[in-house]
Amino acid sequence: MKTRDQSQNTMMEHPKSNLRSQSSRQSGEKIDHGRWGRAWEVDWFSLASVIFLLLFAPLIVYYFVMSCDQYRCALTGPILDLYTGPSHLSDIWNRMQPINRRAVTIYTVWVTFQIILYMALPDFCHKFLPGYVGGVQEGARTPAGIINKYQINGLQAWIITHLLWLANAYYFHWFSPTIIFDNWIPLLWCANILGYAVSTFAMVKAYIFPTDAKDCKFTGNFFYNFMMGIEFNPRIGKWFDFKLFFNGRPGIIAWTLINLSYAAKQQELYGQVTNSMILVNVLQAIYVLDFFWNETWYLKTIDICHDHFGWYLGWGDCVWLPYLYTLQGLYLVYNPIQLPTAYAMGVLFLGLVGYYIFRMTNHQKDLFRRTDGNCTIWGKKPDYVECSYTSANGQRHYSKLLTSGFWGLARHFNYTGDLLGSLAYCLTCGFEHILPYFYIIYMTILLTHRCIRDEHRCSSKYGKGWGQYTIAVPYRLLPGTF
Questions:
Q1: Which of 139, 248, 361, 437 could anchor a disulfide with 406, C-beta 3.0 to 4.6 Å?
Q2: 149 pairs with which residues across the strands?
């Protein structure tokens, strides 16, 4: 699955002019056109991993949500009930709410509304918010050498959506603020339908009418193609980009609304909103707002720059992200916790420190890229390693890999900040159950794997230059340890 999903592109790419491409080819350098982007071939381990995820990822989501709905988020509850109690699998299944017309209507209206905000309302926030970059922006160069343009208006969509939500809650009363929680399981079936539908459509589209045939990769294996995707940047028309829309909306915009619905349900059930629920809402809202404030920067991350669009992103954005990234709030509805003040302040401090590291690490990289290294980081001129690579069209490009500031401490120090923030979310839930800690366990595995996957890609892309970089910055996540 995708990360929360501001996973970073560790290559810190800063393309230069292609004027040196001719001299590079004349010097006899070997040019490899296809060694970055998604894999061309599938080994047995990758195929086994793909099949495992296709089979069990939906079951994991179902099991977690069902455990909360029927066993107050006790992960062992269903298993113990089956083996020591009177229940059968059919009993657990029958107690789950089925899909219904109300849920279908809610979900259809939600997705349609986000499409309208994405397509029909050009960004105006950049015109009056200092420092915010929105409107039409260019993405990174694709493996085929293409630079796509994007309509950046996610912050605007988030603001409009949440203003309408708050206006309804306090004035119009069209629907209850608990509407998401009250229909959480029926909405799960709707999200699965959309996730599988968009993933299937993306695969069929790649065969019949791809946006750019040069940015497609076919492995010959159906399961790998379906999961990891074939098209690099599938689009409908000029502006509807599948990756940008599904990565950022509707899942991430829904994230903060889901938490608000959980808080409203806590208020309805117990007459108060606990400080733990407030912490979850505040810390995760900071992350979501950061995502949309830096949506232009997101165009340079691994999700956009390297991942193809398939089930991994399509279903992951529709189901995995909104249902598993919000587990802390869901847990606190069933298990309300009023944290001691000192403990709550410690969790808040950890979350803010994690966010500071996450944001400043990315800010340093962005500053370095924008100024071509003509800046100061931690009070001095930055150090870097210069590398080159060749895109699929045979052109030579050049990049600088930053080795100063946070990027001198570890090659993925942004992930370190991300993990600290993730841990803070989980700590809001106390220590009675393991379910809320799934998030930090998952993120640790995912980001560690992403470190290895990203570095393998960078090694293939940059060759000797990447080796020089790893000598300059020897650690991946934890300075002096890993």
A1: 361
A2: 138
State the angle between helix axes of 101-120 and 154-167 in degrees (0 to 180), rounded to the nearest 10: 130
Is the N-terminal amide bond of 78 cis, ω within 30° of 0?
Answer: no
Q: What angle do CA 448, 450, 456 make, to 5 degrees?
A: 110
140 in helix, strand or coil? Answer: strand
Omega into 91 within 30° of 0, i.e. cis?
A: no
- Dig out the tokens for 444 from the structure: 């640790």
Q: Would you state the structure tokens that stand for residue 143, as one six-digit string?
A: 């493996």
Long-range contacts of 249-253 (CB under 8 A, 24+ apart): 249/114, 249/117, 249/118, 249/154, 249/157, 250/110, 250/111, 250/114, 250/318, 251/317, 251/318, 251/321, 251/322, 252/5, 252/288, 252/291, 252/292, 252/321, 253/114, 253/154, 253/157, 253/158, 253/161, 253/288
- 387 phi and psi, to 5 degrees? -130, 170
Q: Rounded to an integer, what distance in angstroms lies between the CA atom of residue 124 and that of residue 151?
A: 11
How far apart are the C-alpha atoms of 248 and 464, rounded to whole Å? 35
Give the DSSP H or E segment for 388: strand 384-390
Helices (H), 168-274: 179-182, 184-208, 222-228, 242-248, 251-270
Place of tokens 């279903």: 315
Which has the closest alpha carbon to 388: 29, 39, 37, 144? Answer: 29
C-alpha triplet 349, 355, 358: angle, nearest 5°: 145
User: Tens of pLDDT along the chain (482 residues)?
Assistant: 545 443 333 333 333 333 233 333 333 333 343 444 555 567 787 888 889 999 999 999 999 999 999 999 999 999 999 988 778 888 899 999 999 999 999 999 999 999 999 999 999 999 999 989 999 998 888 877 788 899 999 999 999 999 999 999 999 999 999 999 999 999 999 999 999 999 999 999 999 999 888 888 888 889 999 999 999 889 998 889 999 999 888 899 999 999 999 999 999 999 999 999 999 999 999 999 999 999 988 887 777 877 899 999 999 999 999 999 999 999 999 999 999 999 999 999 999 999 999 999 988 988 898 888 889 999 999 999 988 877 666 777 788 899 999 999 999 999 999 999 999 999 999 999 999 999 999 999 989 988 888 888 788 888 888 889 999 999 999 888 88
294: CB partners within 8 A, 6+ apart: 6, 362
Positive or negative: CA dihedral 345, 348, 353, 356: negative
